[in-house]
Amino acid sequence: MELFANLAHGFAVAFSPMNLLMCLIGALVGTLVGVLPGIGTIATVAMLLPITFGLPPVGALIMLAGIYYGAQYGGSTTSILVNIPGEATSVVTALDGFQMAKQGRAGPALAIAAIGSFFAGCVATVLIAVLGAPLTKLALAFGPAEYFSLMVLGLIFAVVLAKGSVLKAIAMIVFGLLLSMVGSDIETGASRMAFNIPELADGLGFATVAMGVFGFAEIIRNLDAGSEMNRDLVQQKITGLMPTRKDIADSTPAILRGTVLGSILGILPGGGAVIASFAAYTLEKKLAKNPSRFGRGAIEGVAAPESANNAAAQTSFIPLLTLGIPPNAVMALMVGAMTIHGIVPGPQVMQKQPDLVWGMIASMWIGNLMLIIINLPLVGIWVRLLRVPYRLMFPSIVIFCSIGIYSVNNAPVDVILAGVFGLVGYWLIKHDFEPAPLLLGMVLGPLMEENLRRALLISRGDWSVFISRPLSAVLLAIAGGLLLLAVLPALRAKRDEVFVESES
Amino acid sequence: MMSVRSLAGACLATVASLCVVAAPVSAQNYPTRTITMIVPFAAGGPTDVISRIVTANMAQTLGQSIVIENVVGAGGTTATTRAARAANDGYTLITGHMGTHAASVPLYPKLAYHPEKDFEPVALLAGTPILILARKDFPPKDLKEFVAYVKANAEKVNAAHAGVGSVSHASCELLNSILDVKPVGVPFNGTGPAMNALVAGQVDYMCDQIVNAVPQINAGTIKAYAIATPERNPSLPDVPTTAEAGLPAYQAQAWNAIFAPKGTPPSVIATLSAAATKALDDEAVRKRLLELGSVIPAPANRTPEALATLVRSEIAKWTPVLKPAT
């Protein structure tokens, strides 16, 4: 009963003309930010934070929240159209999304991403309202040992999602882990592999590497002799804009599973949303009757991760609203926004600021509705963009990417580094190494290392903590099982090859 | 409404200043254009919030807008290096703090600037006091018991901090050196995750700035033993000072102050210093700063001379504490 009263209060707050406008602005800006490659949500929220000082606190936070989840909608657009993931959470979307675009099915891919996001957003909003407080326990149950095991599981996902050689996928993960070690050592502050370049003291940025190995490398490859033909083919092949009935039927279970996974993993501070998108993709690939379709334009490969990352984006508000502790960098900025308005979030924020909390929860649902209304008609416009001749398209992509990368830290070095990674990425593509596991390794690497060291510091070097803590043990067991599943077919395939050869 | 009026005020002030001094000499009619204030930390953090509150008022006094530029990285030293190399015309300033202008000296042996040699002190703004915090079921009941417990169980206790070079790291090292203990320091990536671990009971104690801790203490999810300032704080009236609780040697606060690049004209420094001290006397500014749990320095402690003394004494204070840590 109390819940309905609270929600009614929330909707009353959110439906005020001012807050509706704030929600719409947030959703629009978020979509734009998501679409522009490189310009991430953290940078945008940081840039827009000062603008919110003049606004009432509830409106300001509704707008900032809108930017955050709006970017999850927009983030898939460049992944699908031009193979450039704007956010860590949309890396996997690029795998099948871009393949669909190449087959002339960019429309259905974009539409299903928006529909999946909408469904996941609605479910996750209800979840925050109903189960927010009990779910908080999950965030507190995860100590360093559990995080480490979760990260191990995450890296196994990366092996599973590779469509080619398992060995090459592992090589890419290790390369990603190595790249993630650039920067300052968390325990001693000592500089590692930074070569006395001050800009490397905090490590390589995700956007820098992602733009390089995905965006720039893809452009170089397209400019290769012969690829121009392919591009033109893509432009002629564009068929329907909306998903067919079969697409919807294929995607529905994927959206449902992605939503569940995303909702759970989103509550965990740190890399929750990233792991959620990878986990959702892996799950779909494992459950599929014909896993070989994945990486070649399977619509479930777009629907599942997009639902998962949007669900996770919403549920990541739970620790902020119930504990007052920000689970990620964007949430930390939201805390900053609240602080500036004289609201210091804490465990009692739900009781003390019902307007803010319930207004924000209600606005999330309204925002999701606005986003789907904004995004579905945009599909047609985005797809038409693909008809732009490539000689005009690629310089614009390069410029947008460069501006985006520069805007993250206002550092010219980042743009140069992205160029270097473009060359590295081109070499990798030419030798059939996939960049997605590399990026996952890079994102999860620091979390894994830090939590390993924290867990061992607290246990005084006793490795058994990873199996003596039940949650951690379960996660490691799942990781072991998945690895076995991934390696077995490879071993079997080898044996088959041997047989084939001996027969001939 | 408020902002429109203040904007109008700023415009009027601009017009007025242009009328009064229409001379071409730069330092005389300073400021004639927008001032950039570099904040070496992310938007929304304590240093950023304090800078924004104070500079908004200073901008009205000076008749020019002050734009905040958040430059993050390497514990604030990236931004401070940039500020040290900026033109010394008074149009690029930095809000430095305990970390960038004192603790960085022992922490970063290859620091590209020196807080005393490369900067002109302008004004001390506000500080955020440090609290000694522990998980809610940590056995000691008060600070005396805490000291005895940590000394007796130095092998077993874990102290969390927000990363090497952070305020919570430096202030925890200071506490440990006073207690003469070396507990295991568990590094986290920022205050949020460290606080999460403390609330969850994964670590035993930590030292942190008041802003983040007040709501958790009030909710009873963590406990506070003492506040490391000479006086109790209005936002936590029940938390004793370290002096009251029996550890007077432990005094720490994350102070924030405005600095200008070396060689900025003295008249410019004087103008800025006056504007800053006027801002700190403004009722609205004081109210907002106190809400954050900040400590506002007395007028005599805000001057460039007092700030120079503070920087010197802080470098001397942190150097022996942080040197062995690196």
TrEMBL record, chain A:
A Pfam family: TctA
Transmembrane region(s): 12-36, 42-69, 109-132, 138-159, 166-183, 203-220, 254-281, 325-344, 356-382, 413-429, 471-491
Limits of the DUF112 domain: 20-440
InterPro entries from the UniProt entry: DUF112_TM
Keywords, comma-separated and alphabetical: Membrane, Transmembrane, Transmembrane helix
Protein name as catalogued: DUF112 domain-containing protein
TrEMBL record, chain B:
Signal peptide: 1-22
Name this protein carries in UniProt: Tripartite-type tricarboxylate transporter receptor subunit TctC
PANTHER family (UniProt xref): BLR1237 PROTEIN (PTHR42928:SF5), TRICARBOXYLATE-BINDING PROTEIN (PTHR42928)
Organism: Bradyrhizobium macuxiense
Keywords tagged on the record: Signal
UniProt record similarity statement: Belongs to the UPF0065 (bug) family.
Gene3D superfamilies assigned: Bordetella uptake gene, domain 1 (3.40.190.150), Periplasmic binding protein-like II (3.40.190.10)
One Pfam family linked to the record: TctC
InterPro entries linked: BUG (IPR005064), Bug_dom1 (IPR042100)
